[in-house]
Amino acid sequence: MAAALLGQAATPGMADEEPKVPDWIEEINPSDYVLLDSDLPADLHVAGDISAEARAAEAAVMRDGKADVERFAFVEVHENICRPDPEEVYDCIGGNYLLSVYVYETAAQARAAWEKTMVDVYGEIPPPEGFEYVSNVIDPLDSRFGGEGACAGPYIWYRNLACTIFGSHDENDRKIASLWLDKVSRTKPAVQVNLRMREDLSLIMGYQYHGSFLGGENYRPLQEKSAGEQAVQAQVFNAGDEVAENVYIQFYLQMPGEERSKLGDPVPVGSVPPGGGRAASIYWDLGGENVEGAVLGAQAYVPGAVDVDWICF
Hints:
Layout: E1 2-7, H1 23-26, E2 45-63, E3 66-84, E4 92-104, H2 107-119, E5 149-152, E6 155-158, E7 161-166, H3 171-185, E8 192-193, E9 195-196, E10 203-205, E11 229-238, E12 244-254, E13 261-262, E14 267-272, E15 277-285, E16 294-301, E17 306-307
Parallel strand pairs: 8-17
Antiparallel strand pairs: 1-16, 2-3, 3-4, 4-7, 5-6, 6-7, 9-11, 10-11, 11-15, 12-13, 12-14, 12-16
């Protein structure tokens, strides 16, 4: 969850930065989401290398009755599966199946991708070269979905995953799909947290704030160290039922007409109990120059965890 504050202060110009790969993506192991030779029967094996890449996308969303664009990242993993040569002269002797998996941060993003990119265009775009469309590779009511997935043709949605399986319209299409769903449905789910930040309460400059802060033991009014440094403090609240451990707050700065950039390194705030709050602070170096219209932001997160109520600043 993130909060933003319109700052009237001073700051030096900030250089553009390369977008950082989200922390949860760095925790992804592609082999957890595709089939390895050890997951396949003797009459199938993985041909060649498994490829994986972090990607970015945009989606139109409605917030407070207004159209907005949500930017998010995902991991794309591809592999080819074939029937091996029992005499080991060739890598494959027949059958070629393409398995592609898309790992999103949240189940909502995966389902939206499945509905818009996969279900709505089913039959309207050609399959990958050398493949053909197949019927449902998984029963849409398969019990392993547990109400958190579905299938339409070669397209599968399950929790925070979207998957496509293209083959030769034979029994191996369904065999591969079943083996894949069996594997990922047993994968330990990502840790979930429910962190919140409120614009009217969570981000302040110096003494300027209204209302009361939770977790007062680690919140304190900050005094500027010098005329060229502005004290900034942010607080995160835990709206979940479990202790959120290893919480960090990252501050951001956006100058008028420029892209957002990080303001300092992530600040650890430790564990946040259910219903509690924790604060973190930094000093913003103004560089001796006055500006107006700068926007300060803060995002609270747990590395490797999925925030069930995450909003991008």
